[in-house]
Automatic annotation (TrEMBL), chain A:
Residues 358-371, 387-403, 411-423 have a biased composition (Polar residues). It catalyses: L-lysyl(27)-[histone H3] + 3 S-adenosyl-L-methionine = N(6),N(6),N(6)-trimethyl-L-lysyl(27)-[histone H3] + 3 S-adenosyl-L-homocysteine + 3 H(+). Residues 372-386 have a biased composition (Basic residues). This is [Histone H3]-lysine(27) N-trimethyltransferase. Residues 1-37, 103-126, 339-439, 454-535, 891-917 are annotated as: Disordered. The keyword Kinase does not apply. Residues 768-883 form the SET domain. Pfam families: HTH_CLF_N, preSET_CXC, SET. Residues 113-125, 891-907 have a biased composition (Basic and acidic residues). GO terms for molecular function: chromatin binding; histone H3K27 trimethyltransferase activity. InterPro entries: CXC_dom, EZH1/2-like, Hist-Lys_N-MeTrfase_plant, HTH_CLF-like, Pre-SET_CXC, SET_dom, SET_dom_sf, Tesmin/TSO1-like_CXC. One of its GO terms (biological process) is methylation.
Automatic annotation (TrEMBL), chain B:
Keywords: Chromatin regulator, Repeat, Transcription, Transcription regulation, WD repeat. GO terms for biological process: chromatin organization. It holds the Pfam family WD40. PROSITE patterns: WD_REPEATS_1 (PS00678), WD_REPEATS_2 (PS50082), WD_REPEATS_REGION (PS50294). Belongs to the WD repeat ESC family. This is Fertilization-independent endosperm protein. WD repeats lie at residues 145-187, 191-226. The keyword Acyltransferase does not apply. It comes from the Eukaryota.
């Protein structure tokens, strides 16, 4: 890349260039030289600064360290003193020897026989510096060595972590693509013999980011030499990056500069946003989808990992229903309890088709809008109640901040203020003390009832008036406004006597403009007024209402509500209790639900209704399959390195395998079919059965149907589960059950004529106690604590699930150490118990074993169970046949007849295992 | 090797000796025929600042440096090998097969510690994986720690609490022990642990929770035991059987550094910085910069390099004086390089060579003030070097 400048920049800059009016082709040369010198000087500057900064840091560190070491020195001095004070120094033999040696050295006490120095006479060339105490007789054995008694060493092992269930390997545990250096044990010295095929693999990822220093140079160079291709080119050369990157970087740098200047003027607002409530539920659920394992029902499942494919069952469950609570109010804010009280005034207005709905409106408004009262002042109310608004807002805040059930406080404020001025005092307390507020809340409820009785006629007229507008909501909205205004202003009038007059005026003003004048202290004389003006308000208010409602329902709450509808159906009690506890009350939810319904109905007609984005989401939310963003769990440092794979066939990787291993089982992955699985079902293609985790309906032909065993207790091959090397699954099999506990907690529904299933031991972890000890054969061994009968399940062989490729890599390492804990699990995975596993990994190999290993499908996962081949007595060591492939087995694991030499090629990667210790 | 980006270059020391101080051989002694792997001064108790211990073969020896280059043997301990046993008891007979495995002990490492009463302990470990705690004040074995699954490569003492020792082993774990009560407190291994032998480990000088370990997986890992400190406290008052102590696993280090591309066989804290060496003929000083939010991640800032020619075999360890002013390291050819650690750029104080010192030097030991340097060699010799220029030695010995 020549640094030939493009015509335009060079032309524009030619004036600024000094004495180089040379021929055009030559022009680039001095220019690039100049640029180079600029870059060079900047580089030098950077390097110098680096030196200075290192020096400073070293100096700082030195000071810190100096104080540390002087402290340590003090400690060592103290130790000496405390020793002298505490104990008789004659007990310290080391001290005594020390003194003796000094004594001898200075020629005193030469006779103290058994201690001396055994320094040697130095060779002549250095002897000038050597002053030997000649009085000390040399001699090696003059200090009698003290014998350290024998301690039996442990058989070697690598530190391992106990696992009670298999784990999938995390990416950072991979050995693939990493260089491994071996050294010869007996050579005593480092012997680097990493596998040739791995040599060139260890390539660091190209660094794409720019360092601060590079930024600095880019910026300064361009500042000094101007922005031209020549400059860019030489910069690119300097950093060995391409020109586009440099350009892009420069642009982003200048942008950054600007924004950083701008940001100085911008207030740091909005930083104190409420944490999770402002987030989208989708975002929150995303981590749930990624981290929650739907098969194990735990977060952060180590077996199936995060970011599993989401499988949505084709058969939707009906919404949960609780018949017993059907007709009981769920709490004090239940829409039922409120609506009942509402019924009285509205019952006698038969012209209202939608009685119930209507009746709820006013009261729910009073309860609901309070929560976020501040936001709910509609513009109209704000106009009228301007002077008092700040007061009400602050009072509301006060109340809200004290309790999560904040609605109680404000609500109380409202209603009490209507009833009697003397009660307004309570509102302060209501915010402060929960207990108090609850009691008050009850009173409030009754107050509401009373009030509603009183104002029955008004609400009637209002309700009917509301109907005129075609929307019941309309009636409630003015109510709210009024209440808002009332409460704030009334409160204001109470707490601040000075402002009383003003606020009373406000109250009256508001009342006149509002609709339900009965609520105000003013006589309801102005109601005619109200009806007159109602029409003006009707339209505007309805929109405002929606806007307000959408505002008061945060996106998060709305999404929660949508989820609630999915789960519980339209049951506001359950939704409020389970999902919006502390956020919304039942009535609010109920009302919101109704509005949502209406909105759906009116949506086509009135575009203005679609102000809130929540609803459109609600519409589609059910059908839309959630998109899932992949999200990798961070655990330690994950290095992603390039990997070049070559055949490892010449190696003998030893992997244990279980009985009857003609061909490896297939790893199961749930399919997402929404109809009965056909030919294209991934399970079918993969050759596995569909399981309960699949999306397909239960009628799918590919499903494993479980067994119907009863008396045989699933212990023989007559049980289809047993025959298929599967454990029974109570979700699938018809009769399989086990009892649990001593029965004191109740007995499960017994199926299958009271015969317990005996084929669920892995699932239930009904294993035998295994002890770890020194083997009678070699190294460590596993022993059984209690006697067991034939075919009894002993325990699970757990470990890390690794890919076959990974296993081949690890196998090479393990083979070198002549110790392998690999176990072939299925076509996808190998179990490695080297660093993670359980005690059964120490069970030794024997050609004539007392145990056998079996890969069993347990709830969709393959697991390795170890079973007794015969009766085993307590304390016996456990052995099983690792069943290495004959050509891969180590010499000691080979049966006499199979002592063929290692073959160079392996038929398939189903290797054999070995064990040593 | 990755290109070092601009602005992150380390300062590399020059190999021209500053002659600030000069050393002469004042003694040499042959301890045996077997290689000596470790030598260490006692920095724990000021009474014993001139006492040092060496290990080699099955022998632990305690010496004293006297004036004028004299080295006096104070104590010597020999691990009994199984062949030397006169009578094998009945109980042992049934494990006779195991004895085939039992190799003669070959100690690799030694350190000084003390119990809470202040009695000086020598703690040594080696190929058998058993850590021997010798009460030098009473000349008897105090405890033997069994637990490591393979050889022990290094043991270090917590300077602030000298009852705590930490050991690095071939079994890929680092273990924290309390020599006072004999319990194994913590095991640093597991999911985030070392993937091969651990060769070296060191306590942070001031932050009691921190240790750094390094090994054959080419990484240096920094661990924190802050969360587990209650366990450590508990270990001091443990009266039950040591085996019943609830030993905990620390599976994830707070920092993993890939500073080297080969075995890392020695690391030491220098304040908050770390000195480490591989087989690349240099000691590297770097700063770990951890990220608080994401444990295990962070960046390494390589600050300085101290070249050490002909130091390309593994298991060569360096040592510092009490105040970390200087470090001494031997090389494959029996030469010693003494670096001034805390200056920038680093300066070589002296380069020590002797015509007869040809054998690889496995470890050096610097005395309290750095005026004496000991080296122990592959051929079983111990060399003593003393600073000659009295003026400079006095200036540096001021503390």
């Amino acid at each position: 890349m020549a640094s030939k400048p493009s015509p335009s920049p060079s032309a524009s800059r030619s004036g600024s260039l000094q004495d180089t009016p040379m021929a055009k082709p030559d022009e680039s040369a001095p220019e690039s030289e100049e640029i180079a010198s600029v870059i060079e000087s900047l580089k030098r500057h950077v390097v110098d600064e680096r030196c200075v900064s290192i020096k400073e840091r070293m100096e700082k560190n030195r000071h810190k360290l100096a104080s540390v070491t002087s402290h340590l020195q003090k400690l060592s001095m103290e130790r000496r003193n405390s020793w002298i004070n505490l104990a008789d120094s004659s007990h310290d033999l080391l001290k005594k020897r020390q003194d003796d040696a000094i004594g001898m050295h200075s020629g005193i006490g030469t006779s103290s026989g058994d201690k001396d120095s055994d320094s040697h006479q130095e060779d002549s060339h250095a002897s000038t510096a050597v002053l030997l105490g000649t009085s000390i007789p040399p001699g090696k054995n003059s200090v009698r060595p003290i014998r350290l008694p024998e301690v039996r060493k442990l058989p070697p092992y690598t530190t391992w972590i106990f696992l009670d269930r298999n784990q999938r390997m995390t990416e950072d545990q991979s050995v693939v693509g990493r260089r491994r250096i071996y050294y010869a044990q007996n050579g005593g010295e480092a012997l680097i013999c990493s596998d040739s095929e791995e040599e060139n693999v260890d390539e660091e990822e190209e660094k794409k980011y720019f360092l601060e220093s590079e930024d600095y140079i880019i910026r300064m160079t361009i500042k000094e030499a101007g922005f031209s291709d020549a400059v860019i080119n030489s910069l690119a050369e300097c950093f060995s990056k391409n020109t586009d990157e440099i350009k892009a970087r420069y642009e982003s740098l200048t942008k950054d500069e600007k924004t950083s200047v701008d940001s100085l003027h911008v207030d740091s607002e909005a930083s104190s946003l409420n944490s999770f409530l402002d987030k989208d539920l989708e975002a929150a659920l995303d981590s749930f989808d990624n981290l929650f394992c739907r098969r194990c029902l735990v977060f952060d499942c180590r077996l199936h990992g995060c970011s599993q494919d989401l499988v949505f069952p084709a058969e939707k469950r009906p919404p949960l229903n609780h018949p017993d609570v059907e007709n009981l109010p769920c709490g004090e804010h239940c829409y039922r309890s409120v609506s009942k009280s509402e019924k009285m005034p509205t019952e006698d207005s038969p012209e209202l088709g939608d009685t119930k709905d209507n009746s709820v409106q006013p009261s729910s408004g009073s309860a609901g809008t309070r929560t976020t009262a501040r936001k709910k002042h509609t513009p109209c109310a704000r106009k009228k109640a301007r002077p008092s608004q700040s007061e009400s807002a602050s009072s509301n805040i006060k109340n809200m901040s004290d309790s999560s059930d904040s609605e109680i406080g404000p609500q109380h404020t409202t209603s009490t203020s209507h009833l009697s001025p003397s009660k307004t005092k309570l509102c302060g307390k209501g915010g402060v003390s929960q207990r108090n507020s609850k009691r008050v809340a009850e009173r409030v409820l009754s107050c509401i009832k009373k009030r509603q009785k009183l104002i029955g006629s008004e609400s009637d007229s209002v309700a009917s008036g509301g109907l005129l507008g075609g929307d019941a909501k309309l009636s409630s909205s003015p109510h709210r406004e009024n209440e808002d205004a009332n409460s704030s202003s009334q409160k204001n009038s109470k707490s601040r006597s000075r402002k009383t007059e003003l606020s009373v005026q406000n109250v009256q003003g508001v009342a006149r403009d509002g609709i339900s004048s009965a609520m105000v202290a003013d006589p309801p004389g102005s109601s005619s007024d109200v009806t007159l003006r109602k029409d003006d308000y009707a339209d505007g208010n309805s929109r405002k209402m929606e806007l307000n409602d959408n505002l008061s329902w945060k996106a998060f709450e709305k999404s929660l509500f949508e989820k609630g509808v999915e789960i519980f159906g339209k049951n506001s009690c359950l939704i409020a209790r389970n999902l919006l506890n502390g956020l919304k009350t039942c009535v609010e939810v109920f009302q919101f639900m109704r509005q949502a319904d209406k909105r759906l109905a009116y949506q086509a007609g009135d575009a203005a209704n679609c102000l809130g984005d929540g609803y459109s989401k609600f519409d589609q939310g059910n059908n839309e399959v959630r998109r899932r963003s992949r999200f990798l769990r961070r655990r330690g440092r994950v290095r992603r390195l390039k990997y070049s794979w070559k055949s490892t066939a010449y190696h003998s990787i030893r992997k244990r395998i279980s009985e009857r291993k003609d061909q490896p089982c297939r790893q199961y992955n749930p399919c997402n079919c929404q109809t009965a699985c056909g030919k294209e079902c991934p399970c079918h293609l993969n050759g596995t059965c569909c399981e309960k985790y699949c999306g397909c309906p239960k009628t799918c032909k590919n499903r494993f149907r479980g067994c119907h065993c009863a008396k045989s207790q699933c212990r023989s091959r007559q049980c289809p589960c047993f025959a298929a090397d599967r454990e029974c699954d109570p979700d699938v099999c018809r009769n399989c059950w086990v009892s649990c506990g001593d029965g004191s907690l109740g007995v499960p529904n017994q199926r299958g004529d009271n015969y317990e299933c005996r084929n669920m031991k892995l699932l239930l972890k009904q294993q035998q106690r295994v002890l770890l000890g020194k083997s009678d054969v070699s190294g460590w061994g596993a022993f059984l604590k209690k006697s067991v009968g034939k075919h009894e399940y002993l325990g699970e062989y757990t470990g890390e699930l690794i890919s076959h490729r990974e296993a081949d890599k690890r196998g090479k390492i393990y083979d070198r150490e002549n110790s392998s804990f690999l176990f072939n699990l299925n076509d996808q995975f190998v179990l490695d118990a080297y660093r993670k596993g359980d005690k059964l990994k120490f069970a030794n190999h024997s050609p004539d074993p007392n145990c056998y290993a079996k890969v069993i499908m347990v709830a969709g996962d393959h697991r390795v169970g170890i079973f007794a081949k015969e009766r085993i007595n307590s304390g016996e060591e456990l052995f099983y046949d690792y069943r290495y492939e004959p050509d891969r087995a180590p010499a000691w694991a080979r049966k006499p007849e199979a002592s063929g030499s290692k073959k160079e090629e392996a038929s398939h990667p189903g290797g054999r295992a070995k064990k040593l210790a | 090797m990755a290109r070092i980006p601009l602005g992150c270059e380390p300062v590399i020391g020059s190999l021209v000796p500053s002659k600030k101080r000069d050393y002469r051989v004042t003694n040499r002694l042959q301890e045996g025929k077997r290689p000596l792997y470790a030598v260490v001064f006692n920095f724990i108790d000021s009474r014993y600042f001139n006492v040092f211990a060496t290990v080699g073969g099955n022998r632990v020896t305690v010496y004293q440096c006297l004036e004028g280059g004299v080295i006096a043997v104070l104590q010597s301990y020999v691990d009994e090998d199984c062949c030397g046993l006169d009578g094998i008891s009945e109980a042992l007979l049934e494990f006779s097969i195991c004895f085939v495995d039992q190799k003669d002990e070959s100690f690799y490492t030694v350190t000084w510690a003390c119990n809470r009463d202040g009695s000086p302990f020598v703690v040594a470990g080696g190929i058998n994986g058993i850590i021997r705690v010798i009460d030098a004040g009473h000349e008897k074995i105090d405890k033997s720690f069994v637990g490591h699954g393979d050889s022990v490569n290094e043991i270090r003492t917590q300077p602030l609490k000298p009852s705590l020792v930490v050991s690095a082993s071939k079994d890929e774990s680092v273990r924290l022990w309390n020599v006072h009560t004999g319990v194994c407190i913590l095991i640093f291994a597991g999911a985030g642990g070392h993937r091969n032998e651990v060769l070296s480990v060191d306590f942070h000088p001031s932050d009691m929770y921190r240790i750094a370990s390094c090994g054959m997986d080419n990484t240096v890992k920094i661990w924190s035991m802050k969360e587990f400190w209650p366990s450590v406290e508990k270990s001091f008052t443990w009266t039950d059987l040591p085996s019943k102590f609830p030993t905990k696993y620390v599976q994830f280090p707070v920092f993993i550094a890939s500073v080297h591309s080969n075995y890392v066989d020695c690391n030491r804290w220098l304040g908050d910085f770390v000195l480490s060496k591989s087989v690349d003929n240099e000691i590297v000083l770097w700063e770990p910069r951890t990220k608080d939010q994401s444990p295990g991640e962070g960046t390494v800032d390589i600050l300085q390099k101290y070249p050490v020619p002909e130091c390309d075999i593994w298991f060569i360890k360096f040592s510092c004086d009490f105040h970390y002013n200087a470090a001494a390291i031997g090389n494959r050819e029996g030469k010693i390089f003494v670096w001034e650690l805390q200056t920038s750029p680093p300066s070589l104080i002296a380069r020590l060579s002797h015509a007869q010192s040809k054998s690889p030097i496995r470890q050096t030991a610097m005395s309290f003030d750095g005026s004496t340097i000991l080296s122990c060699c592959e051929d079983g010799t111990i060399w003593r070097w003393d600073a000659v220029s009295s003026s400079s030695s006095s200036s540096s010995s001021q503390v």
